[in-house]
């Protein structure tokens, strides 16, 4: 068993949409870091709060495993992995602590532009491509619709044109990518933005105090922005 850490560790995206805004937000909380040569780890200088730079998909698991205390990740990723755990009878191992106000988007079902949309029942017997199988499956079940969920890790929007699927369920912000693929959004599963994810329970001891300090500063920084 590894000794208890006396520093706080926050996972953020190494590159991608949330990488720079996540770092900027944490820097506005007064954190500074010394970067490692491989750029995977940033050692906290002003406070014992370190950063781990990772793929966004790994962040919920790093929190679940206790490797990191917090992470900045899209609510869509957090909710998908939580729904996946629930579907496998596993207990929740992370939760949203704060909404951060950037990275806004929505998870939506989109169908070919030519369809006249009558409602979710229209998806019965269809194949829907998505990178969010747990959230889509739950939504279809809630709607009482039996459709096939086809998992694709990327390039979901071209699946209908390739004949791989009839419809898609994907992240949308401007809608430009859907339009470029002759698709139109017809139902929103939920609204997403970047969130501070953390453990289900409060932290204790030194890391509990560091977490309280971080959250006070974060709440101050978020108030200044709005
Ligand atoms: O490498 P890594 O795995 O870490 O990154 P990633 O490629 O999985 O994620 P990334 O950087 O693309 O997105 C990180 C997070 O940003 C997502 O999980 C969302 O929470 C959030 N976000 C906000 C978005 C978008 N907006 C968005 N537009 N994520 C993806 N998109 C995609 C969208 O699906 C479409 O394909 O961007 C494309 C353009 O969108 P439109 O609607 O503006 O055309
Ligand atoms: Zn990812």
From TrEMBL:
Q: Name what cofactor the protein needs.
A: Mg(2+)
Q: What EC number(s) would the UniProt record show?
A: 2.4.2.17
Q: In which pathway does it act?
A: Amino-acid biosynthesis; L-histidine biosynthesis; L-histidine from 5-phospho-alpha-D-ribose 1-diphosphate: step 1/9
Q: Which GO terms describe its molecular function?
A: ATP phosphoribosyltransferase activity
Superkingdom of the organism of origin: Bacteria
Q: What keyword terms does UniProt attach to this protein? A: Amino-acid biosynthesis, ATP-binding, Cytoplasm, Glycosyltransferase, Histidine biosynthesis, Magnesium, Metal-binding, Nucleotide-binding, Transferase
Question: What does the record say about activity regulation?
Answer: Feedback inhibited by histidine.
Per the record, the major location class is cytoplasm
Localisation: Cytoplasm
Q: Which residues form the ATP phosphoribosyltransferase catalytic domain?
A: 55-204
Name the reaction it catalyses: 1-(5-phospho-beta-D-ribosyl)-ATP + diphosphate = 5-phospho-alpha-D-ribose 1-diphosphate + ATP
Q: What does this protein do?
A: Catalyzes the condensation of ATP and 5-phosphoribose 1-diphosphate to form N'-(5'-phosphoribosyl)-ATP (PR-ATP). Has a crucial role in the pathway because the rate of histidine biosynthesis seems to be controlled primarily by regulation of HisG enzymatic activity.
Member of which family?
A: Belongs to the ATP phosphoribosyltransferase family. Long subfamily.
Protein name in the entry = ATP phosphoribosyltransferase
